[in-house]
Amino acid sequence: MATGVFSYLLFEPLDPKELSLLKDLTTAEICKVWKATSNYVRRELLEKRAVDIGIGSFAVVPAHAAAGEDGVLDVDRPVFQLNRHIQQFYKLKEPKIKIPYEIFEYPLDFQEIAESIYFRLPIVEQCIHETLLFFAETLRGKKEVDFFFSKLGILSLRGQKVIMNFFDDCVLQVDATGNMLPALLGVSLHASRAPCSTLK
User: For the chain (length 200 residues), average pLDDT per consecutive 10?
Assistant: First the structure.
């Protein structure tokens, strides 16, 4: 089974035969695999490890957040970045915040994910691969889609933009600086100011 990033560069519409396993699994089973995958990614982010899921990577990167009228806070924020080959192939806009090159991106541990839900390893690996193939087809067709990651957030495709909106509890939990909550609330650490919160 070819699961490298180049297998997600689709020159032609996806052949339904390439999604044979997804047709055999129930919706509940597919969701169970992806919930376990999302939980795995979140655990890795809490350990400050970047994870390559096949079409792109999740990581925690240093960033600046505006807080209050003039304040700027250093924070750790989760990000998702599409693989550069996929981004260029489908002519998608570059993300504003990028994962630094020096951050090593670990591949998914399919064995750990499979064991957590008592599924056979080939089932988990194929399910993830076929789902990502389906996502690649939405990129090829420039369709609007929302990809839900349990306990992480929602990956949305809108035109030429791929946007990952992380859930607040995930954003707060992966931040080791303690500054994220004041940043989200738009207040200074030293004084109470008017709300005006933006992450840069």
Answer: 80 93 97 98 97 97 76 89 95 90 96 98 97 95 94 94 94 90 66 36
Strand, helix or coil for residue 51? strand
Calpha distance 3→53 (Å, rounded): 10
* Distance in angstroms (rounded) separating the CA atoms of residues 103 and 13: 34
19: Cα separation from own chain's centroid: 22
Dihedral sign for Cα atoms in the order 40, 44, 46, 50: negative
In the three-class reduction of DSSP (H, G, I as helix; E, B as strand; rest coil), residue 44 is classed as: helix
Contact assessment for residue 151 and residue 39, using Cβ atoms and an 8 Å cutoff? yes
Cα Rg, the chain, nearest whole Å: 18
Helix (H, G, I), strand (E, B) or coil at 25: coil
Report which of 37, 192, 13, 198 is spatially closest to residue 107, judged by C-alpha positions: 37
Tokens describing residue 58 = 């999740």
Q: What is the pLDDT of residue 50?
A: 98
Q: Where are the domains of the chain?
A: 22-199
Residue written as tokens 């250093």?
74
Residue with tokens 């129930």: 26
pTM equals 0.87
Rounded to whole angstroms, how far apart are CA atoms 113 and 136?
22
CB 105 within 8 A of CB 59: yes
Relative to beta strand 50-52, strand 153-158 is unpaired
